[in-house]
Amino acid sequence: MSCIDFEDARNLKIDYFRHLDAKRWADLRRLFHDNAMFAGFPFATGDADAFVQGAASFLDGVDSIHQGFIPRMTSIDSDTIRGLWSMHDYLVWPRDSRDYRGAKVPGLYGIRGYGTYEEEYRRLDGQWRISVMRLVRKRIDLLTDESPSLRDQDFLAPDPEWIPSLLPQQIG
């Protein structure tokens, strides 16, 4: 296992966060093995197609920021890496427009979550893909109070091509 393999696996996760928040569903789908397994998400998951469809439906009308940091990677064999990522997410939606995991709280407009991702990356035809993704929550704060925000400021927009993701021809 080379350092490049570990870097490729890290870049998969980085692309996962970027595509998820930008709602780039076709790009997100290309990061997974067809038979990838998922657990711990607040929507139904099955294979990779069902996961992406569930994420798209769940995040419809939601502004999201997903972050992963302090990855720990280990080699299982020449074509398998396991990783553990600390995570934080911040999701907001129109006040009182939805519940979260059955929590019907007056004024609910989002969550702030903390936990870890437990993942497995497998190489297939020379390309690394996510084969297992488990979201393990440690804490979820329901957002209900008035939280001042600088949302109307002129922030820079992210450039999705700043560092290109794997090109479709590289993915297979």
Write the layout of secondary structure elements.
Layout: H1 3-22, H2 25-29, E1 32-39, H3 48-58, E2 63-77, E3 80-92, E4 110-124, E5 127-143, H4 168-171
Parallel strand pairs: 1-5
Antiparallel strand pairs: 2-3, 3-4, 4-5
Question: Gyration radius, to the nearest Å?
Answer: 17 Å
Number of strands: 5
Number of helices: 4
Low-confidence region ranges: none
What class do helices, strands and sheet pairing give?
alpha+beta
Q: Which bin fits the share of residues in helices? A: 10-25%
Mean pLDDT: 89
Description of the structure:
There is one protein chain. Helix content is 23%, strand content 40%. The protein has helices at 3-22, 25-29, 48-58, 168-171; strands at 32-39, 63-77, 80-92, 110-124, 127-143. The longest helix is centred in the N-terminal third of the chain and has 20 residues, at 3-22. The two termini are 22 Å apart.
Keywords, please?
172 residues, alpha+beta, five-stranded mixed β-sheet
Short description:
By secondary structure, the protein is of the alpha+beta class. It has 4 helices and 5 strands.
